[in-house]
Amino acid sequence: MTAGIAFRRVERSDFPLLTRWLAEPHVARWWNHEWSPEAIERGFGQSVDGLEPGEDWLALLDDTPLGMIQYCRFADYPEYLEELSAVMEVPEGAASIDYMIGDPALTGRGLGPAMIRAFVARIWDADPTATCVVVPVAAANRGSWRALELAGFARVARGPLEPDNPVDDPLHEVLQLDRPPRPAGQ
Prior knowledge:
Layout: E1 5-9, H1 15-23, H2 25-31, H3 37-48, E2 55-61, E3 64-73, H4 78-85, E4 94-101, H5 111-126, E5 132-138, H6 142-150, E6 154-160, E7 171-178
Parallel strand pairs: 4-5
Antiparallel strand pairs: 1-2, 2-3, 3-4, 5-7, 6-7
């Protein structure tokens, strides 16, 4: 179910939408991000300006905003790589994503796994250095790691990591999807 899902980079004109999404209880619970205009600028402005190695992407379902995906390479964030390395051996070339479905009316319809599958396909096309996508998820956030499993990811590790929300236990599930082998002759 990836038909109709497209992506474009987040722009400042999307900040009011991100503000609304981050204030939604189903997002606020796990993202734990302030949604004041200043906080939105701090959280997303550098990516919009190309001053941050991570990328913020708006997911569109038939041209209507559905959610957001953040993409980064572990090599660009040594502190993140070091923390995860205490839980598992992080493969060379590993990338990561974070994601949300913004509108609560769109949750529970299979769009999360579809959005993740579509974005990972985009990663394989756009970033030839990405060998796999590794995503740590708070163990209590069953919906998130289930969406990853439904998108083809497998759990590869479990251990304590700094939670996004300080009310959460540090236990995380770590899921991974490897780049598929290239067909013979390519």
